[in-house]
Amino acid sequence: MRNKSLTKYKIGEVDINENKYNPKRLARLLAEKHPTARAVFFFVGRNDYIALSSNGHLNVREGREGLFKAWGLSEFGDFRPQTVFRELENELLKITVTNSAGNETHSFDSYNAFLDWLGY
């Protein structure tokens, strides 16, 4: 039986590999590094933040409570999810990565430091 999720990645593999800002590519690298990890992107002057799970889910969370917020109603509503990291790279404040148990945390002050850690 064919694994549909692997097929899905293979179909778009060229696009995923060529763009260091592509959330699918980042999720794949994150999953290779830590299969249950989640990266959280904080931006200057924004209360909302972006969470990217190693399973490929990209969503917006609101404030300290971390409640889910619809992308279109968030502070990122004017950006496309596929390009938000490229467009807001200069506004990036911090990236944190934690595993599902929460006992391993990494923090990065730049997008390039995060990419280096991922092995991009």
Beta content: 25-35%
The major beta sheet can be summarized as: 6 strands, antiparallel
In total, how many domains does the architecture comprise? 1
Proportion of residues in helical segments: 25-40%
First and last CA, distance: 31 Å
Strand tally is: 6
Shape: globular
Rg from Cα? 14 Å
Going across the biggest sheet, name each strand in turn: 4-3-2-1-5-6
**Tally of alpha and pi helices:** 5
Classify the secondary structure makeup into a structural class.
alpha+beta
The chain-level mean pLDDT equals 84
Order of helices and strands: HHHEEEEHEEH
Unreliably modeled segments: 1-17
Protein described:
- This protein is α+β, with helices and mostly antiparallel strands.
- The chain has one domain (4-118).
- It contains 5 helices and 6 strands; from the N terminus they run αααββββαββα.
- It has helices at 4-11, 13-18, 23-33, 84-87, 111-118, and strands spanning 38-43, 48-53, 58-62, 67-69, 92-98, 105-108.
- A 6-stranded antiparallel sheet has the order 4-3-2-1-5-6.
- A hairpin with a 4-residue loop joins β2 and β3.
- The chain starts with a helix and ends with a helix.
- Mean pLDDT is 84; it is low at 1-17.
